[in-house]
Design brief:
Blueprint: H1 2-35, E1 43-47, E2 58-62, H2 63-71, H3 85-118
Antiparallel strand pairs: 1-2
């Protein structure tokens, strides 16, 4: 019975991750459309990216507010809503991997610069 419960939680978790990713993609498209319009001062309705199966909330944001959230890697969330622990962990892991790649690039660059100065 515990194994069945664990499988059910895993399926629910994957569905929530998919919903979060899908709504984030829809929100990106809304942001792109909004940027292409002459008036960018008004508020737009973006979908809450919490991923809960029962959530259909919208969040009213200006394009600047949305861009700030999106550019910093944060999710659009309705008041009182949170990302799942799995999604938070996935985002933190992606951020850590990006930082590791940047650090490796800088290290390689420093080694090249030191080698070039020695010749």
């Amino acid at each position: 019975m515990a194994r069945t419960h664990a499988r059910k939680e895993s399926v629910v978790g994957r569905k929530r991750e998919f919903k979060t990713a899908a709504l984030a993609e829809v929100n990106r498209h809304i942001g792109e459309v909004a940027q292409g319009l002459p008036s960018q001062a008004e508020e737009w309705e973006f979908f809450c990216e919490c991923g809960r199966p029962d959530c259909s909330d919208v969040v009213r944001l200006t394009l600047e507010e949305y861009s700030s959230l999106h550019d910093s890697g944060q999710a659009v969330l309705a008041p009182g809503h949170n990302l799942s622990q799995v999604e938070r962990a996935r985002r933190l892991n992606a951020d850590a991997e990006a930082l590791q790649r940047q650090a490796q690039h800088q290290l390689e660059r420093a080694h090249r610069n030191m080698r070039d100065r020695g010749t």
